[in-house]
């Protein structure tokens, strides 16, 4: 039995106790952008309930065009006003360089990736840069409540960077 | 008090009961790619625990270069082997067209977005297309366990599309 099949069995239990549907716009008007890391249960970390916040995640919790797209849609079409950015300690993105991964993939497949990895060497610096990218984007209208944090995977605690 | 400040208070409670740290690689070897919609608590829907799966999310749960980046990093650097893709009923991405949003943003700001919205008109079709994009990407090595679902926001149940 694949892991996916096991998780689908879990979904049967979830559906059996499910109370829905909830409204489409996030009830608390917040969008969270966090790393995809398996140890970050964003709902748990922030005490969120279903229906309260948009959750955007990717490798590193970085800000590329795709995150600017999601944030613009979140604010303009679905009314969110605050943004919470979360990086975390012990992140995989601290363990390699963009060039290393590009070279490895190109050597192996003969095709250079269309993307760069967006690895980083300093968590706080990348949080600050990510917040700045959001605040200077012309298509994200509400940027007075953009705050950036580092989640400590050893303590479960968020530390504010900016 | 901002919503962010309220959520930070929740984090104090989470940290007080936190037991960590867990290892970096996802224990169940799965990456989930889902829509950012506030009603999708991916950990709840799939019965996931902290440390078990990468979770990637964006507006629509679509596959752009940034999701291919995250999935490639997930598989190549952190050992995941299965991919679960989740779209959902009542999705905001069914309510407008790419051109409508591009025109509105350009008219309002004078600057055309660098991204397209990736709106869609048919959930199942977009799930199928997204799975195909992943399966044909040269930099994602494990594509024999890529499965696509639609989450029903009224019942809490996942329906398999492909």
TrEMBL record, chains A, B:
Pfam families: Pro_CA
Annotated residues for binding of Zn(2+): 35, 37, 88, 91
Transmembrane annotation, as ranges: none
InterPro entries, sorted: Carbonic_anhydrase, Carbonic_anhydrase_sf
Tree of life domain: Bacteria
Catalytic activity, EC: 4.2.1.1
Co-factor note (free text): Binds 1 zinc ion per subunit.
Reactions performed catalytically: hydrogencarbonate + H(+) = CO2 + H2O
UniProt enzyme class: lyase
Signal peptide: none
GO molecular function: carbonate dehydratase activity; zinc ion binding
Function of the molecule: Catalyzes the reversible hydration of carbon dioxide to form bicarbonate.
Family indicated by similarity: Belongs to the beta-class carbonic anhydrase family.
Protein name, as recorded: carbonic anhydrase
Organism of origin: Nocardioides guangzhouensis
